[in-house]
Automatic annotation (TrEMBL):
The chain crosses the membrane at residues 6-27, 290-314, 320-338. The keyword Transferase applies. Residues 50-217 form the Glycosyltransferase 2-like domain. PANTHER family: POLY-BETA-1,6-N-ACETYL-D-GLUCOSAMINE SYNTHASE (PTHR43630). It comes from the Archaea. This is Glycosyltransferase family 2 protein. Keywords: Glycosyltransferase, Membrane, Transferase, Transmembrane, Transmembrane helix. InterPro entries: Glyco_trans_2-like (IPR001173), Nucleotide-diphossugar_trans (IPR029044). GO terms for molecular function: glycosyltransferase activity.
Length: 372
């Protein structure tokens, strides 16, 4: 293949790589972001809620997290908290028991697992004990605003809504411009996709599901890491809305140490989710099918178009000293000073590495990361 042809193919792949997500983002933003929800919302809707909180060595923050849940402006008589501790070695379970004995105004139960088998196993264990109409899954290190539960439950007044999640705001010493840019881009898409019909990406910091639908699905999937997103997507495939409203914002602590591999692990889980969803796409409602198809393309295929484009440009420079290839490559490096571009390239790198890591280890159970 001569230099001119290498350059043309590289350019085409690059244009597809950047063009598809940009077109999707601006189309979704223009058509759906400011569109009405078409969901019957009741501010006073108050079903019984079961909050399942998986823990593993959370002694540093568990008291604050339980206090955060107790501080919700939701009737305590309609809340039950089920802590599923996966064999912590730092006294987390004992602190939960102590909290339950001191605060009897809310139902708090502790379930001890003999071994750590992953988050989804813990969620399914807790689900067996849940009695609420709505099951809310939560992370130990994600603090909710006081109105989070009330804001979430009002959407379930509409029987067509099957699942509700949150937007995320990165906080902590590990926050950087890449993470902030990533969240700005993805939060817009989550809302727009939700207004179209449903979003295929949910967040474990706050994910709410109708218990009846979870039971139909036999709980959360234990063979992939994105148990939250995959469960919400399967609910959307059943014809229900799986949404992320704009007014439910949860703070997520970003790790300062191990940030790169933290992002790679999350990318691994989303890749697992979309790969497993591919064969289900035919049964998706029309409004959701194309959203799911584009997101699957962006996570599974698009990163490798960039990799192929770069590889061809480098080959053209090395074999034929192509001036055009050198100019394009130089421009790509210079553009890294621009935050949105730098954010996008970082995300593509995470996805590429995550794809290869999945061949070795799905990271269903991962090492605990200390966040500050």
């Amino acid at each position: 293949m001569n230099a001119t042809l290498l350059d043309i193919v590289a350019l085409m792949l690059g244009l597809i790589h950047f063009g598809v997500p940009l077109a999707y983002y601006f189309y979704m933003k223009k058509k759906y972001l400011n569109k009405p929800w078409n969901i019957r919302v009741d501010e006073n809707y108050r079903p019984k809620v079961s909050i399942i909180l998986p823990t593993y060595n959370e002694s540093r923050i568990i008291q604050a997290r339980l206090d955060n849940i107790r501080g919700q402006d939701y009737p305590k008589s309609l809340m039950e908290v089920i802590v599923v501790d996966s064999n912590s070695s730092d006294g987390t379970a004992e602190l939960v028991e102590e909290s339950a004995s001191r605060h009897r105004d809310i139902e708090l139960r502790l379930i001890r697992e003999g071994e750590r088998r992953g988050k989804a196993h813990a969620l399914n264990h807790g689900l067996k004990h849940a009695t609420g109409e709505i099951v809310v899954i939560a992370d130990a290190d994600a603090m909710w605003p006081r109105e989070a539960l009330s804001e979430t439950m009002k959407w379930f007044a509409d029987p067509g809504v099957g699942a509700v999640s949150c937007l995320k705001k990165p906080v902590g010493s590990g926050v950087n411009s890449v993470e902030e840019g990533y969240r700005e881009y993805y939060n817009v898409l989550r809302i727009a996709e939700s207004k179209a019909h449903a979003t295929p990406v949910f967040h474990g910091e706050l994910g709410a599901f109708r218990r009846s639908l979870l039971e139909k699905l036999n709980g959360f999937p234990t063979d992939i890491g994105a148990d939250d997103s995959h469960t919400a997507t399967r609910i959307a495939l059943m014809g229900y809305r799986a949404i992320t409203p704009e007014n439910i914002l949860v703070e997520e602590i970003v790790p300062e140490r191990g940030y790169f591999w933290w992002r790679v692990r999350r990318a691994q889980h989303l890749i697992q989710h979309f790969a497993k969803t591919l064969w289900m796409m035919k049964q998706a409602p029309r409004e959701f099918k194309w959203v799911l198809a584009v997101e699957a393309f962006l996570h599974l295929v698009n990163p490798f178009l960039l990799l192929a484009s770069i590889t061809l440009l480098v080959a053209s420079i090395a074999t034929a000293q192509s001036t055009l290839a050198l100019a394009i490559t130089t421009l790509g490096v210079v553009l890294l000073v621009v935050k949105p571009y730098r954010t996008w390239i970082a995300q593509q790198l995470h996805l590429i590495i995550a794809t290869f890591r999945n061949l070795k280890n799905k990271e269903i159970v991962w090492d605990k990361q200390v966040k500050s």
